[in-house]
Specification:
5-stranded mixed β-sheet; elongated; about 290 residues; mainly beta; 1 helix; about 5% helix; 20 strands
Length: about 290
């Protein structure tokens, strides 16, 4: 027992040496009492799929928030070293007086190809951030953005165009597909099959004529005149001169097991037909 008592002073001496004034430790700067706690919102998604047809270009906006609406405030943004080459971001974010929300823009190269992914890391700086408090999005945000891959969709109009043709669609994720040049008409068509429920629509900026009804939304391939469509290509031998569809929840159908769906084509006529056909089925199947 005596030898352990004799060893105790040595341990105490070693402990005291470790607590000497020679340490290089420097205390972190404290957060000022009136800090606005600027941080990224928890609403931001860590992984997104870009829409290459968006007129705003290949970019996203990240939501930044603060704990007050008083006064204008500009906060610097630092781009992290792990950010992919070609990715750029706002140098700062500015809150207007009266606002507690602002947005930082992240832009991706226009030369990006289908399926390509980009990583980015942004950190908010300045003395209006609070790195010591656990806030929903934090002062650093790491995210990934990718361009959608392309898929093929087989299409046919039962009883009229039974020979299938292929459309190329962008897979935007979550069951959302966009055909950018539907039947070589110059206009797009959206097909959404989220949760096994089919919805067809046109892009929000489409000039095609639409009409709401009790049955759903009628979409006409008509702008200032009838838009012609070419399912097998402009040299494919079939020219559609009258085309309209219905997005009707009670009439659309989709089977997740084989990715087959259908909706009503309410008007259909080709140059070879003497009169239009009405209420025929437009069918499609998404290829793996």
């Amino acid at each position: 027992m005596k030898k352990y008592i004799l060893f105790l002073p040595l341990l105490m001496a070693m402990f005291m040496a470790g607590c000497s004034d020679d340490d290089d430790y420097t205390a972190a700067d404290p957060v000022k009492a009136s800090s606005q706690q600027v941080h990224f919102s928890g609403d931001n998604k860590e992984s997104v799929i870009l829409d290459p047809t968006d007129s705003a270009g290949l970019s996203i906006n990240l939501k930044v928030v603060r704990n007050t609406t008083e006064g204008e405030l500009t906060v610097p943004i630092e781009v992290g070293a792990k950010t992919s080459a070609g990715v750029t971001a706002s140098e700062s974010v500015t809150f207007a007086n009266g606002d507690s929300v602002a947005y930082a823009r992240v832009a991706f190269p226009d030369t990006a190809s289908a399926g390509q992914s980009f990583h980015y890391s942004l950190t908010l700086g300045g003395d209006e951030t609070d790195p010591y408090t656990l806030l929903d999005g934090g002062i650093t945000f790491d995210g990934t953005a990718s361009l959608p891959s392309e898929v093929k969709i087989s299409c046919w109009i039962t009883g009229y165009l039974d020979t299938k043709w292929e459309e190329t669609a962008l897979d935007l994720g979550n069951g959302d597909y966009r055909i950018t040049d539907f039947m070589h008409s110059g206009y797009g068509l959206n097909i959404n099959v989220a949760d096994g429920v089919l919805t067809v629509s046109v892009p929000s900026d489409s000039p095609l004529y639409q009409e709401e009804s009790d049955y759903g939304t009628y979409i006409y391939w008509y702008v200032d005149d009838y838009v012609h469509l070419f399912p097998y290509g402009t040299d494919g031998g079939v020219e559609v001169t009258d085309f309209a569809i219905l997005n009707g929840p009670s009439y659309n159908g989709y089977y997740t097991t084989n990715k087959y769906g259908y909706f009503y084509c309410t008007e259909f006529q080709t140059t070879e037909m003497s009169s239009p056909a009405y209420w025929c089925w437009f069918s499609f199947q998404i290829q793996d």
